């Protein structure tokens, strides 16, 4: 028991693992933006899931969860997969059509929707501090969306949809996290997402250029590595301690967007980013759903990218 407690109380290694995952996910997003210039969104999503499945299968074999892949929660796995896959479609589309940092910021709104969905679905009470944080976060969303002025982009709502669907996926994980091991949850998501995302290939298939193939494989590898690092981080320390470090992927994405595409954030977006990150950290720290989700390494942006 003491060993387990010690293992679960290593905040520095846990934070470094989560930071590593955040950087990995930012790199994944940058690669998605590159390949999206020559491939349809449906193609990119499928190859991300298919390649990730190939890399995750050895992890499944190595982990050997009790009971294997047999589950009593298939309906929840299916709901989680559909919502998580929908979040991925929205997120990748936003990456292709918005600055990289803004796409990550809009996806990072998931923690704001989790308490609302958890309240409606599982009647989990919303603390007053969390209610205030949600309001603060929505002010940040308004600053990013900039409604009512000339630079308002409807595509931003698709990016916001990634956050909403990711939140639904996370709450569905909440319903089965006490009985399902992390690797089984990850396996079912990747397997079901691969099968479902193969359907649109019937009308959107296009043979990738030779120099795109290795990028697609790298996207799948980064997805698997990011999930492993995130899982490791949340196994080393409580979610309240390491969860805020997931927002580092916004900073990494901003840097990559500036370096490769010359993207810059205006003052309104910077202000919105600060409000969303602060609100997300508060809800992550104060909400029971996030605490349980931390044990399954299914937090904010990992659900959108690697759920």
Structure write-up:
The protein has 307 residues and is mainly alpha-helical. The chain has one domain. It is built from 16 helices and no strands. The longest helix is centred in the last third of the chain and has 27 residues. The radius of gyration is 18 Å and the shape is globular. 53% of the residues are buried.
List the SSEs and their pairings.
Blueprint: H1 2-7, H2 11-35, H3 41-63, H4 74-97, H5 100-107, H6 110-122, H7 128-145, H8 155-176, H9 182-198, H10 201-204, H11 210-236, H12 239-242, H13 248-261, H14 267-286, H15 288-295, H16 300-306
Helix pairs in contact: 2-11, 2-13, 2-16, 3-4, 3-9, 3-11, 4-5, 4-8, 4-9, 4-16, 5-8, 5-13, 6-8, 6-14, 7-14, 8-15, 8-16, 14-15
SS strand fraction? under 5%
DSSP strand tally: 0
Over the alpha carbons, how many angstroms does the gyration radius reach? 18 Å
Described by the principal axes of the CA atoms, the overall outline is globular
Distance between the termini: 30 Å
Structural class: mainly alpha
Low-confidence stretches at least 5 residues in length (pLDDT < 50)? 1-7, 295-301
Instruction: Provide the succession of SSEs.
Output: HHHHHHHHHHHHHHHH
Q: What value does the average pLDDT take?
A: 83
Helicity level: over 70%
Major β-sheet profile: none
Count of individual helical segments: 16
How many distinct folded domains? 1
Short description:
With about 300 residues, this protein is mainly alpha-helical.
Properties at a glance:
mainly alpha, 78% helix, 16 helices, 307 residues
